Structures are given as C-alpha cells and as structure tokens.
Amino acid sequence: MAAILDHQEVGPRRPFLQRALDRLAPSKLMVPGFLLAWSLLVIVPLVVIVLFSFLQVRQFRVVYEPTLATWLSLIDSGRWMAVVRTLRIAITLTILEFLLAFPFALWLAKGCRSKTFKAAVITLLTIPFFLDAASRIIVWRSILGTNGAINTALVWLGVVDQPVEWLLYSEFAVHFGLLGTHFPTMVFPIFMSIALIDDDFIQASSDLGGSPAQTLFNVIVPLALPGIVAGVVFTLVPLMAAFVEPQLLGGGFVDLLGNSVNSALQQLKYPTAAALSTLVILLLGICLAALILVARRRTDIAAMFVAMRR
Amino acid sequence: MSTAAMETYSERTAAPPRARRRLGTSRHWTTLAKFAGGFAIVMIYIPLVWLAVMSFTANPLSGVPYPLTLQNYATLFADTRWRPPLNTSLLMSAGVALVCMVLSTLVGRALTRMPRPGASLLLVLMPLFVPGLTMGAALFIFLRTMLNLTLGLWSIFLAQLVWALPFCILLVLVVASRFDLRLLDAAEDLGASPWRRFWDIEMPILRPGILGSGIFGFLLSFNELPRSLFVRGIETTMPIYNWAMAASQQSQVPIIFSLTTILLAVTLPVMGAFFWVLFVKLDKN
C-alpha cells in the first residue's frame, strides 16, 4: 500500500519542468508573503505619513526630531478653514448622493423587473470608474462658463440679461462636478445589500399590515445598513481628498484639503502635506471603525460574495 | 399584542384582497427613484457627449457648438507632444494588467482556501478605503523623502498596482468562490498532478475572472491620476498630461478634447461590451 502511495506521489518520471511547476502549486506561504509585501506598499507609507507630520525638513533634509511645529502652523495659517470647507462640501454631497442613490437602488433591486434594463444601468454606472478625470471635468467649463452652453441658452431665451456668473468658478460648480463622479460608489453597495434581502421578508411585512413606510424603516433599512454604511464610506472617502473638481471648477475660490496637499507638496512643504493627509486618514479611520462596528453586528464579508453572485 | 393592534390586524385580514402594496412599486416613489437615478446618470454622461460635440468646434471652451470644424483633429495629428505620454500609458497599463492577472489569480485562489479570510481580505482591500491623493502623497513621502529613491516609471507602476489590484482580486474572488474545491479532491484521487489539477480543472473556471482582472487592471491603470501624479518623478502618463494641460489653462485644451474623444470612441464600446457580457453572464449563472 505504502509503495503504491509512494509511486503516486513521486510520479512516473515526469519531466523536470513539470515537477518544478508542481512544487509551485498552492503554497501556504503565498498569502502571508503577499500580505507582507502589500503592507510594505500600503500600510507602511500611511504610517510614515502620520509620523512625518511630526517632523521638520531643514535644507532639504529631514530632521528626525519630534515637533508639533507643523500642526501649530496649520492652525495659525488658517489652513483649518480648508478642513472645515472640505468637511462641509463632502458631507453635503454625501447626503445628496444618498438621497439620489437610495430610492434608485431600492427600485433597481426590488422594483425593476427587466433584467436587461438592470444590466444596462449597472453597465452605465460601472463605466465612469474607468474614465479620465481631468478631461471629463474640464468640459463643465464650456457648459457652465459665462459664455458657456447654459448661459448662452438663457440669454438667447431672454430669461436673463447678463450671463449668470456664479455658475462657474464657485462652490456651486464644484458641487455640480462632484455629483456625477461620486454617484456610482453610493449606488453599488446599497444596491447589493438591498438585492440580498429576501423578498419574503418584505412580503411578510406587508402581509402583517405594515405600510410601505413601516416596511421601509423597520425591514429594509436595518437589513441594508451595511450597504448604506459602505456606500457612505466609499463616497465620503474620495470626496475628502477631491482635488480635480475644485481646481478646475473652483477657479481658486474653493480650496479643499486635496488642493492644499497638492500645493504643499509642490512647494516642498512635506510635513504640511503629511499633516493634511493625516487629517484625511484620521477621518477615514473614524469612518472605517463605524463601518466595522455596524457591519459586524449585521453581516460578514462572506455575505458580500453571496450578494455579488446574484 | 394590544387589542387595537389585534383589531387592525383582523380588519385587514378580513378585508377583501386588495392590490399588493409592494415597496418599489408604489407609483410616486418609483417615479421619484427613476428620476433620481436618471438625473445622476445624465450628470455622468452629459460631459462625455458634450466633450465629443465640442471637439468638432473651433473653440471647445466656448459654449456654442458652432462653427463645426475638424481643425482640432488636424492640430492633434500635427502635434507630437501627446504621443510619448500615450505610449508610456499604454505600456504601463499593459504591464499593470499582466501583473494584476498573475497576482490576482495567485492571491484570489489562495484566499478562498483560507479558513478565515476576513482580516487578510480587509488588508488586501485597504487601498479602496484610502483616497488616491492621500495614497499618492504617502507613497511619495515614503519613497522619495524617507528612502531617498529616484522616482520614475517603477514608482508609477507600484502606485497604479496599489489601486488596480484590489479590484482585480475582488473579481477573481467572485469567480473563485463559486468553484467547488471538491472537484480538485476528486481529480487528486484520480491521480492528477497539482499542475494538471490547476490547469485542466481550475483554470477553465477561473478564466473569465482572470481575463476580467486583466481588462480591469488595464483600464484602471490607464486612467489613474492622483497616485501617479505624485510619484511620477519626471515621467508623464496620459492622465497626467491631460491634467497638466487642463489645469494650466493652456492653448492645448482643444487637443485634449479631440484626443479624449478618440480614446473614448475606442474604449467605450469595448467597456460597454465587456461589462454587458460580465453582468448578463453573472446574472444567468
């Protein structure tokens, strides 16, 4: 018996290359090895950037001496205004996106009967992930500008005498540009979590006399909560660091955290850039903690795959 | 249960069967939901349509699509400055796609074999939770300022890999998690070598996921801006070129319009077809 097993394991004289390939097959070191390299590439830079905000650069050399100078100058120079503005715009847009996305996701998951239509909408919402940001956003200039499409139409129709100035290079324009870009990240998680909800639960709720509103708030929202939290995180996180839209559509009036990081790096103020990025990471950490707290109670990651398979 | 509730309940059950009031089918809300989604989708696609229209006009940044001209395209083909960035991007994306295909296969199938993949998966997906700009700044400070390395194509490659790989691994995981591992045991019992088990049994099932991760990797890398912008050294990719031209208010803007229109004309049908097949197929399975 042992002899047969031996024979099977060694194999009857397979070529050297094949035997070498056999040894490469699922190795237990694969995942730990990859995760180590991955941490070096992802986690270490993030830790470094937090530590770096407590250092200073003198004559192009990093001085390894802990100091709060960067953080204090951040408060003195009024850069914290950018933080407040970023938070305000990011939260406003996240709420807007949620208001647009939740009813749509609910309808797409439970109301829409045509599978073709559903696939078409999902396709349309996936494509924007793969489009170049700068060229998409700059087009808004020719739509919103003082001699842009909207103003030309308004003046020609006689609605206004003078072109409307606040359409471009204002917070309005920045909101406008951000709205389209960040919609899919809100829809997808909510759509998936709602699609996961068993139709029977919803049926049971209405059979027991629940009004649509009661079904919505007592059945659907609690069950879709992980998706809602994920949608909020995936929308809020990139919004916190948006820099293309404010730069191209804000015309220098809308300085957000992302632009501050960008300009700080260009001015070689590395600790300042590090401190501003740390703020972003800090806010991200809070969001993630909330996500994990909520998600752990409700579901696990395995459920995400079930959702994807549908 | 209170008496009042009992009464309501019995009243409702006694009532003749009315039209099912289902969520998502009540009229006003449905209209509102469709309108909200339609509005957002229009907001995404208006710039693309307008971009294509304006690329045929004399002054793309004016709002009037008149007079129509092919001048921008003529200028584009006479100009050579956009070609090196495009070549860099194409090569870079092909490289990222290739590495993504290999790594996502190796890691994706290994993850599905782990008893508790939760924490590892979270680490793999970590870059999805970090804004691109923050990741770019972090990589720059780590590689350039801390380690004193000379940045260039290699650092752009790493930065794009950090962005693209999580998506690719997710895609392979979706396919791999549907794979019944007992098939491999069966093949082993029948005497198949590990390599044959992988190539003849696992590979045909994983192939759509691997192919998809190649396409995802290519597209994500081809359009990546915030990370590569910081770690580029002196190199320029297509999105960086577009960004520099758009942000500096140069006369190059008309060229970006026609160039992006050509790129969209090539990539949009490919993407549309790919995602269509992906979602329709996933739906059928």
UniProtKB/TrEMBL annotation, chain A:
<feature type="transmembrane region" description="Helical">
    <location>
        <begin position="138"/>
        <end position="160"/>
    </location>
</feature>
<keyword id="KW-1003">Cell membrane</keyword>
<dbReference type="InterPro" id="IPR035906">
    <property type="entry name" value="MetI-like_sf"/>
</dbReference>
<feature type="transmembrane region" description="Helical">
    <location>
        <begin position="216"/>
        <end position="244"/>
    </location>
</feature>
<feature type="transmembrane region" description="Helical">
    <location>
        <begin position="172"/>
        <end position="196"/>
    </location>
</feature>
<keyword id="KW-0812">Transmembrane</keyword>
<feature type="transmembrane region" description="Helical">
    <location>
        <begin position="115"/>
        <end position="131"/>
    </location>
</feature>
<feature type="transmembrane region" description="Helical">
    <location>
        <begin position="273"/>
        <end position="295"/>
    </location>
</feature>
<dbReference type="GO" id="GO:0005886">
    <property type="term" value="C:plasma membrane"/>
</dbReference>
<comment type="similarity">
    <text>Belongs to the binding-protein-dependent transport system permease family. CysTW subfamily.</text>
</comment>
<dbReference type="GO" id="GO:0055085">
    <property type="term" value="P:transmembrane transport"/>
</dbReference>
<feature type="transmembrane region" description="Helical">
    <location>
        <begin position="89"/>
        <end position="109"/>
    </location>
</feature>
<keyword id="KW-0472">Membrane</keyword>
<dbReference type="InterPro" id="IPR000515">
    <property type="entry name" value="MetI-like"/>
</dbReference>
<keyword id="KW-0813">Transport</keyword>
<feature type="transmembrane region" description="Helical">
    <location>
        <begin position="35"/>
        <end position="55"/>
    </location>
</feature>
<protein>
    <submittedName>
        <fullName>ABC transporter permease</fullName>
    </submittedName>
</protein>
<dbReference type="Pfam" id="PF00528">
    <property type="entry name" value="BPD_transp_1"/>
</dbReference>
<feature type="domain" description="ABC transmembrane type-1">
    <location>
        <begin position="83"/>
        <end position="292"/>
    </location>
</feature>
<keyword id="KW-1133">Transmembrane helix</keyword>
Automatic annotation (TrEMBL), chain B:
<feature type="domain" description="ABC transmembrane type-1">
    <location>
        <begin position="86"/>
        <end position="274"/>
    </location>
</feature>
<protein>
    <submittedName>
        <fullName>Spermidine/putrescine ABC transporter permease</fullName>
    </submittedName>
</protein>
<feature type="transmembrane region" description="Helical">
    <location>
        <begin position="154"/>
        <end position="176"/>
    </location>
</feature>
<dbReference type="InterPro" id="IPR035906">
    <property type="entry name" value="MetI-like_sf"/>
</dbReference>
<feature type="transmembrane region" description="Helical">
    <location>
        <begin position="31"/>
        <end position="53"/>
    </location>
</feature>
<dbReference type="GO" id="GO:0005886">
    <property type="term" value="C:plasma membrane"/>
</dbReference>
<dbReference type="InterPro" id="IPR000515">
    <property type="entry name" value="MetI-like"/>
</dbReference>
<dbReference type="GO" id="GO:0055085">
    <property type="term" value="P:transmembrane transport"/>
</dbReference>
<feature type="region of interest" description="Disordered">
    <location>
        <begin position="1"/>
        <end position="21"/>
    </location>
</feature>
<comment type="similarity">
    <text>Belongs to the binding-protein-dependent transport system permease family.</text>
</comment>
<keyword id="KW-0812">Transmembrane</keyword>
<keyword id="KW-0997">Cell inner membrane</keyword>
<feature type="transmembrane region" description="Helical">
    <location>
        <begin position="90"/>
        <end position="108"/>
    </location>
</feature>
<dbReference type="Pfam" id="PF00528">
    <property type="entry name" value="BPD_transp_1"/>
</dbReference>
<feature type="transmembrane region" description="Helical">
    <location>
        <begin position="120"/>
        <end position="142"/>
    </location>
</feature>
<keyword id="KW-0813">Transport</keyword>
<feature type="transmembrane region" description="Helical">
    <location>
        <begin position="255"/>
        <end position="279"/>
    </location>
</feature>
<keyword id="KW-0472">Membrane</keyword>
<keyword id="KW-1003">Cell membrane</keyword>
<keyword id="KW-1133">Transmembrane helix</keyword>
